Structure formats: C-alpha cells, structure tokens
Amino acid sequence: MNKDQVSGRVEEAKGKLKEAAGKVVGSDKLKAEGQVDQAAGKVQKTYGDTKEQVKDAVRRDLDKP
User: Fold this and answer.
1) Minimal CA–CA distance to 19: which of 46, 40, 3?
2) Which portions of the chain are predicted below pLDDT 50?
3) pLDDT (0 to 100) of residue 64
4) How far apart are CA 38 and CA 48, in angstroms?
5) Cβ neighbours of residue 48 closer than 8 Å, sequence gap 6 or more
6) Phi-psi region of 27 (alpha: psi -120 to 50; beta: other; left: phi over 0)
7) What pTM, to 2 d.p., does this model score?
8) Within 13 Å, how many C-alpha atoms sit on residue 38's CB side?
9) Residues 10, 56: contact at Cβ < 8 Å?
10) What is the rounded distance in angstroms from the CA atom of residue 57 to the CA atom of residue 49?
11) How far is CA 11 from CA 34, 36, 42, 63, in A?
12) pLDDT at position 22, please?
C-alpha cells in the first residue's frame, strides 16, 4: 500500500463524515464539501492503486527468466 492509497482513503472517510455532519445540521455547504472531499479521495486512491499495479507488473516482468 502506498502513500496515495492511504491518503485517498483518509480523504474519502473525512468526506463521508463531513457529508453526514452536513445532513445532521442541515448545512448544504458542508454536505457539498463532503461530497467533493469524497470524490478527491477516490481519485487519489485510484491513482495509488494504479501505481501499485504498474509496480507489480514491472516486478513480474523483471522476475521472468
């Protein structure tokens, strides 16, 4: 697991909390901020996942005889 995967997941979680808090207090602004944070987290997590997949593919190719 790399830094981008972890940061993305953390950002997603923060976004979910913000969105839920916005719903509870009736703040459309806070709810929207939470949704934006979730989307940004998903993008960063996907980027990190892709980096890991590329690294794994390179390692597999280097290990071939």
Assistant:
1) 40
2) none
3) 80
4) 15
5) 1, 2, 3, 4, 5, 6, 7, 8
6) beta
7) 0.85
8) 13
9) no
10) 12
11) 9, 10, 8, 35
12) 97
